[in-house]
Amino acid sequence: MAVTIKDIAKRANVATSTVSRVLQDSPKISEATKARVRKEMKALGYEPNYSAQSLANRMTQSLGIIMPEADVSIFQNPFFLESIRGISELANEKNFTMAIVTGKDSDEVLTRVKTMTRANRVDGFIVLYSKPDDPVVDFFHSEKIPYTVIGKPQQYVSETTHVDNDNFQAGKDVVHYLTELGHRHIAYVGADIVRTVHKERVRGYHAALEEKKLAVNADYVLGTDFTNEDISRLFSLTIPPTAIIVGDDMAALPLQKALHPLGVLVPDHCSLISFNNLTLADMMNPPLTSVDIDIFTLGFQAAKSLIEQIQDPTEITKHIIVPHRIIERESCIKYH
Predict the structure, then answer these.
(1) How far apart are CA 181 and CA 317, in angstroms?
(2) Cβ contacts of residue 50 below 8 Å, gap of 6+?
(3) Mean pLDDT of the 240-254 span
(4) What is the pTM of this model?
């Protein structure tokens, strides 16, 4: 005869509803009770039927992962792979699957999200970016669909559970780091004016310059679409930068390539510091000083928060800040 949750409940001296909540890993059940129930499950050789549980609870045990509008650079950026790895770690632990959602523009992403929602294919969504006036977030909010955001939300901030770094402080920290090395002419290359994470870092960059009473030079700030000619103009200024903050590690590669024909050597002529601390930062020549934002934990915490919402709709809104730290390598030196 097959073992049932009633058998487990009897042996563990708990209610059958408690066993059901343990199977769902409900935060309302203490870790001690979970351990006792799971011990009896193991002793009786009980194998949970997650498909049956999902049907009973009208849950799919699946999370939707929303990428930014797709272009080649998005899929080549290890940030998204590492954040998905963090999501996957928690999803596997909780017996959830994942479905990736993307599209060529916001309208296409929204259409796919609506299709998945109406077909009841996922229980909630993790948005791997943050930007203003996002129709996808508007849809989640109006339809009361569980979602979390990696980044600082630009809509419904107090009502949106999100996981982020303090990017404003990170922007300040890199300026303070460079000024401690003696740099006074600090440029920012790869400033994305759309993505909130980059806007916050640039805001921190400007704030730190003002704190240090250093000039805020508009010519020192270049967007993500910078060209070799833009870099050439930057180093043709009357006072060229002695250090550059790069928007992310991926942008450091084309920047370094653009510096080469100008005879600008890193770090001899110009120090570089970047964000994200991807694996490639350590592989660059010279190895790149970078801000480690703990991408894996961003993904893990986003998945944890979403699953808690799914399992308990009364779960409070959370704003989780993951610490950052500067990883020093050879791309930055003291300025004399």
Answers:
(1) 41
(2) 61, 95
(3) 94
(4) 0.80
